[in-house]
Amino acid sequence: MIISPCISICKTDPQTGYCYGCGRSNEEKKLWKLEDTSDQWKSENLTNIQERLSGWQLESFKDSYKYKTENGISLFKKNLINE
């Protein structure tokens, strides 16, 4: 099972149509939720969305996604709990 790349920063860029947090389009977000979406597609999508991101946005995504895969919660949600 591949964990969703959602890192709880859910705002869509009006020009690109990609989420500022995870870099996915709305269509890609829908596909992630479907039971029959393969792990191969999800793995390829993770690669594709990281190619869309750059600089601090890419580093932030990588850090938060790594934390989420290791701890089951995004850094954003962790910080909300600790406030």
Explain what this protein looks like in three dimensions.
- There is one protein chain.
- The chain is an all-alpha fold.
- The protein contains 4 helices and no strands.
- The radius of gyration is 13 Å and the shape is globular.
- The N and C termini lie far apart (31 Å).
- The model has no long low-confidence stretch (mean pLDDT 95).
The end-to-end span amounts to 31 Å
Beta-strand segment tally: 0
Outline, from the CA principal axes?
globular
Q: Determine the structural class based on helices, strands and strand pairing.
A: mainly alpha
Mean pLDDT equals 95
DSSP helix fraction: 55-70%
Over all CA atoms, what is the radius of gyration?
13 Å
The major sheet is characterized as:
none
Order of helices and strands: HHHH
* Unreliable segments of 5+ consecutive residues: none
Strand content: under 5%
Q: What is the count of DSSP helices, taking H or I runs of 4+ residues?
A: 4
